[in-house]
Amino acid sequence: MSKPLLKVQGLKTYFFLERGVVKAVDGVDFEIKKGEIFGVVGETGCGKSVTALSILRLVQSPPGKIVEGKIIFEGENLLKKSKERMRKIRGTKISMIFQDPHTSLDPVFTVGHQIAEPIELHQVIEQHLISADEVPKKVIEMLKLVKIPDPEHRVVEYPHQFSGGMKQRTMIAMMLSCNPSLLIADEPTTAVDVTIQAQILDLMRELRRKLGTSILIITHNLGVIAEMCDRVAVMYAGNIVEQADIMTLFESPKHPYTRALLAAVPKVGAKKGELESITGMVPSLITPPPGCKFHPRCPHAMDICRKKFPQMIKIGKEHLVSCHLYSGGAKK
Amino acid sequence: MLGKIRGHLGSTRRSPAFRYFKRDIRAKVGLAIVLLVISTAIFADFIAPYSPTEQHLDEAEQGPSWKYLMGTDWAGRDIFSRIVHGTRYALAIGILFVVVTASIGVPLGLLAGYRGGKTDSLIMRMVDATLAMPGLIIALAFVAVFGPGLYNVIIALAITGWAGYARLMRGQALAIKGEVYIEAARAIGEKDRTIVARYVLPNSISPLIVMVTMTLPAAILIASAMSYLGLGVMPPAPEWGAMLLQSTRNLADNPLKSVFPGVAIIVVVLGFNFLGDALRDAFDPRLRE
Amino acid sequence: MYGFIIRRLLLLIPIMLAVSIVVFMLLPLTGDPERQVLLAQGVQDPSVEQLEAVRHQYGYHRPLYIQYIRWMTGYPPADPNENEDAGVMSRGLLRGDLGFSHKFQTPVLDKMLEALPNTLILMAAAFMISLALGLLLGVISALRRKTWVDYTGMGAALFGVSIPNYWQGLMAILIFGIWLGWLPVEGYHGLSYLILPALTLGTAQAGSLARMTRSSMLDVLRQDYIRTARAKGLRERTVIYTHALKNAFIPVATLLFLRLPYLFGGTVVIETVFNWPGMGTLLVKHGMGAAGGMGKDWFIVQGGVLMFLLMAVTANLLCDIAYAYLNPKIRYGEGG
Fold first, then answer.
1. Burial (Cβ within 10 Å: 0-12, 13-18, ≥19) of residue A2
2. According to the model, what pLDDT value does residue A328 have?
């Protein structure tokens, strides 16, 4: 694979609340290559969604703010761009679909109108790629692409007339209408039925193949990761703790958190009572534990883990881990 | 289990709503004004230098002076004393209105929400129709038929005023009815009336308080308008609207006489509205971030 | 949609019936309708004979339900054997007869139709002012949330809801009419007469409208579909003025119509303050004999109350239809 499409470096996104500063994303590095499906996995509140929103600079502000870091997309730092330049990137170069398709579509506009909006604005008005007359045709094309049956008629319907799966496919159509090179999918299957989940994931894989779009999938579901991703990063309390290609991660996880996460997945054929859970609680993001944030829950915690934040170290070709167990300085 | 629920209800002092409320500047200002008004009403006889109806005909229509802080009206009555005693009318109207409307609306709303079915649709038809009616006009017609006076004004406003409480409590009852602890209470065989009195009502206290602090000043405003029209509390009672009715006959000659009662109304109503806004925001977790 | 409107219209029948009964009962509830009629004619101390004559003349000796049916339909017609007078008796509400005003010596309906346009003009002007001011203030405050713009706007709005409407009118009269002499303050003899009453009534309504708009707008701005619109790269003004505003306006529109009864009440008060020749002045001053009016005229009271109640019912109906129209979930499909 070629050079990275997106490179996130030292990203820190904090929320400044009256109770204190929530360090939702506290120094995150990763990169996504062209045509790749990259996954970010972690528990609720680990900062994975905020990371995704930070890339598009859509973090609610106030109280949220990107305080540090670089987001290099196609060689340019998105954090240095003007608001207007950034707006033009959204929907055209990078777009995003969200967790809940039921609330993510505007209830008072037709599906067709909502898909047409970005096409009209970006491709007709801003880029003069197509003429205004071609927009309806393009809208129906997009609906066909995401396999909405009878698109000519359904295009004038309102979101509430669509099923959950169709809504999410509409979201995908809307977000892919201007051929973005990166699609961010934030928990794309969490709010739809299990049977629909597979359809949505199949569709995204197929579109990657057809259009060559890179996809960043944010999820708490390791099943989705296993099914979709080329590479994956595991997040915990605002940091990436381990990053690897998919085979390596599932076959030889290194970080104790990753191991615990994998162990918590119920296995077919497991005996009753073998379902494991991670002991302890998700740490506060306002006053996180010193040193490694996972140490209070870690079965292998050592003295150094309480004092020093573990640096990310490379232990394989695509395999990075942030844990004192693997850094040379630590004694077993 | 049930004891635990009750313990839960008792912990409101430490709740985030209470903390939020305590920090809200509007709450402080509102509370200060309301307390001031209440103590003025209680100690009116000590604060006011004259009786509110005592006439000094040879000193009529005077401007403010050390003797008459806000001047005198056409009959030489001390306006300051009348304003002070007016707090009693304002509070009496507000409190009576709330008590009467709530004691009609709350049970009806609870009944509608808790029973559901035909009872619900019948009561809610009535509520919807009542809410669609212009309350002031109906109140004016009532007073025109049955004559003016404090109590008639309260009854007149209550004709339409109960509906808001009924709608609120119906929503509350509907929401709480589905909670697990209500089903638990029913499962252990508690009577409907007991359940409503012990669980549904206490859990609706916060929206009810907000409703009270919002309807009370509204009642003061409307009642004063009725008095101003001559279809409410009648002069020489030191009611602010009634005072304005008399003072505006010579608005141009002695404008201050018309300013003071108006300002008094604004202060009282603003105080309750501050309090109401602060309470509403404190109880609404979405606004608290 | 049409099914919904028809159902809604059918629901009007019992409401109209209730309204007519309430309005009819106004006079019998006074206890001695014949004395009230004579008072309106200027007879202060009627003799027993006079009372008895009027009782029969107007048919007040009949049972109430006969009187009601007669008041509504004109049937059964006046019976000369009972000394009932067809000349003073209403030909029936359903035929557009609201009775005869002794004060003005004209049918009440004529008086009403004279006053109604003036009231509608005042209300329409006030409504426009409140809509423009309220929406603007509400939207701006929501967009500039927790800044001085928001605090000032909402402070003004709260002040607007806390100020007695009629007192605001009095102060406007004092300042702009008497001291500055810029604007006329009494009656209606041209457009300049409209300014002060409309502004007074409009600003009062604007306060609550601004508060509703702000909270509705804040609600909508938190919604996922607003984030979607931004993620599509739409211009901020499209996000706000197309997506957010249209959604925020649905609950506001409902509340706007639901608050029309308050506008009617406000109109009655403000008309009286500015002696505006509309329904409110007619009702309060000439009908109820308050605010400087001399004596009551119950047929005007009945007519005026009826007119306002009918307007309220109509407004409520329009509200439901407008809500259904704005909200696609009701316009199409199951709901409603």
1. exposed
2. 63
For C303, which residue in chain B has the nearest alpha carbon?
B141
Separation between Cα atoms, residue A323 and residue A332, nearest integer Å: 12
The mean per-residue pLDDT over the stretch A217-229 comes to 90
Quick one: A71 and A142 in the same domain?
yes
The answer to whether residue A280 sits within a structural domain is yes
What would the DSSP string read from start to end of B154-208?
A: HHHHHHHHHHHHHHHHHHHHHHHHTSHHHHHHHHTT--HHHHIIIIIHHHTHHHH
| Tokens at C131, concatenated | 């809509």
Start-to-end C-alpha separation, chain A: 37
Could you tell me which chain C residue has the CA closest to the CA of A122?
A: C233
Stretch B172-189: mean pLDDT: 82
Angstrom distance (rounded) from CA A228 to CA C145: 41
Say if residue B252's pLDDT is above 90: no
Name the residue range of residue A282's domain: 259-267+275-329
Same domain membership, residue A130 and residue A226:
yes
Report the alpha-carbon distance of residue A116 to residue C234 in Å, rounded: 11
How many domains does chain A fold into? 2
Mutate to test the interface with B, among C119, C162, C281 (most CBs of B within 10 A): C162
Nearest-CA distance C235 → chain B (Å): 27
Residue A154 lies in a domain: yes
Report whether pLDDT(A274) > 60.
Answer: no
Residue A247: inside a domain, yes or no? no
Chains within contact range of chain B (3+ C-beta pairs < 8 Å): C
The two tokens of residue A297 are 């829950």
Q: Which residue has the tokens 């028809």?
A: C6
- Which residues, at least 6 apart from C261, have a Cβ–Cβ distance to it below 8 Å? B131, B132, B133, B134, B135, C312, C315
**pLDDT of residue A332 exceeding 50:** no
CA distance A142 to A114: 12
Distances (CA, A) of C185 to B73, C168, C182: 24, 13, 10
Range in A63-72, A199-208, A273-282 with the lowest mean pLDDT? A273-282
- Where in chain B are the domains? 19-52+60-288
Which residues from chain C sit within 8 angstroms of residue B138, using beta carbons? Answer: 22, 305
pLDDT digits (tens, 9 = 90+) for A137-149: 999 999 998 889 9
| d(CA C331, nearest CA chain A) in Å | 11
* Global confidence as pTM: 0.83
Which CATH architecture best describes the domain B19-52+60-288? Orthogonal Bundle (1.10)
Token pair 């407004």 is found at C315
Token duo for residue C12: 């009007």
The phi and psi torsions of A7 (rounded to 5 degrees) equal -135, 115
Evaluate the CA torsion angle C302, C304, C305, C307 in order and state its sign. Answer: positive
Q: Distance from first CA to last CA of chain C, Å, rounded?
A: 8
Shared-domain flag, residues A281 and A215? no
The answer to whether residue A254 sits within a structural domain is: no
Domains of chain C: 2-88 (no CATH), 111-330 (1.10.3720.10)
Give the percent of chain C with pLDDT over 90: 42
* Backbone CA torsion sign across A141, A142, A144, A149: negative
For the ranges A300-309, B87-96, C93-102, the maximum mean pLDDT occurs at B87-96
A154 and A96, same structural domain?
A: yes
Nearest-CB residue to C234 (from A56, A100, A117): A117
